[in-house]
């Protein structure tokens, strides 16, 4: 479904203008969707720079951010448009909103660079400023750049459509972004399937081992009796051995006594 930019258009443009014109301290604005609808709305704005903006991005949602920074090379203001696809956002929702970005880009005009991001590392202030610095080809004023973008987005005719290299590059980057997302999603599904199969295998081996032990116990019910019989046999042998030893000792004692008595009589 198409994105709805009409419902909250005034609030969205007011926040965007605060960032663009530089007359206020506001240097970033954040936009998102109303619930699970396709209605774009203004979310927040601030004057704490990219560091503050980074903390406002929600990893579970789709959002768009527009920020103003100073070019390290020219010290002139530049605008950055961030297409935020949070890592925790539903995959289907990401695919739907991917088609919305071109409309958002046309509404929030004046961006010098566009960044597709999905985690905090990709919106790190140092990373963004490095891209801003690399995008500088010549020294020009901010107002001239805004006018140039306005002229580029104006319709040329009813049939002719002007090719804007900047937009074509964004489309290519977007396609690469979603190809990477799809590949990682497939890899995650394969890994989850492997883990589930491994757990099933371990559970099966455990059940088979328990069944084998139970079967062995059922097949040999006489084993406890055999252990008792063996124990009784050993006790009997020990008792017989003890009695034999005692009888021998008594016999030897009597024999010695008889010999002693005979010796006395003969003397």
How would you portray this structure in words?
By secondary structure, the protein is an alpha+beta fold. It folds into 3 domains: 9-154, Severin (3-Layer(aba) Sandwich), CATH 3.40.20; 162-219; 226-259. Helix content is 59%, strand content 13%. The protein has 8 helices and 5 strands, in the order H-E-E-H-E-E-H-H-E-H-H-H-H. The chain has helices spanning 9-21, 49-56, 91-98, 101-107, 125-134, 142-153, 165-219, 223-266; strands at 28-33, 40-46, 62-70, 77-85, 113-117. A 5-stranded mixed beta sheet has the order 2-1-3-4-5, sandwiched between helices. Strand 3 and strand 4 form a beta hairpin. It is rod-shaped. Mean pLDDT is 79; it is low at 138-144 and 146-151.
Brief overview, please?
The protein has a five-stranded mixed beta sheet, with helices on both faces. By secondary structure, the protein is of the alpha+beta class.
């Amino acid at each position: 479904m198409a994105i709805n930019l009409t419902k909250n258009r005034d609030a969205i443009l007011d926040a965007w203008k605060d960032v663009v014109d530089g007359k206020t301290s506001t240097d970033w604005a954040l936009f998102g969707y109303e619930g699970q609808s396709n209605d774009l709305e203004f979310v927040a704005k601030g004057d704490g720079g990219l560091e503050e903006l980074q903390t406002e991005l929600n990893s579970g949602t789709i959002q768009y951010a527009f920020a103003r920074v100073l070019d390290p090379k020219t010290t002139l203001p530049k605008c950055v448009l961030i297409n935020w696809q949070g890592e925790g956002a539903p995959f289907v929702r990401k695919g739907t909103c991917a088609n919305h970005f071109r409309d958002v880009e046309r509404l929030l005009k004046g961006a010098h660079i566009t960044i597709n991001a999905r985690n905090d590392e990709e919106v790190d202030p140092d990373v963004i400023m490095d891209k801003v610095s690399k995008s500088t080809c010549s020294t020009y004023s901010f107002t001239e750049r805004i006018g140039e973008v306005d002229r580029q987005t104006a319709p040329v005719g009813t049939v002719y459509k002007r090719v804007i290299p900047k937009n074509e590059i964004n489309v290519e980057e977007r396609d690469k972004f979603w190809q990477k997302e799809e590949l990682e999603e497939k890899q995650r599904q394969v890994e989850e399937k492997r883990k589930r199969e491994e757990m099933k295998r371990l559970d099966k081996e455990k059940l088979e081992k328990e069944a084998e032990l139970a079967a062995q116990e059922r097949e040999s019910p006489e084993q406890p009796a055999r252990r008792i019989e063996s124990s009784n046999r050993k006790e009997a042998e020990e008792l017989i051995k003890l009695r034999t030893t005692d009888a021998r000792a008594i016999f030897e004692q009597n024999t010695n006594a008889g010999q002693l008595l005979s010796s006395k009589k003969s003397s």
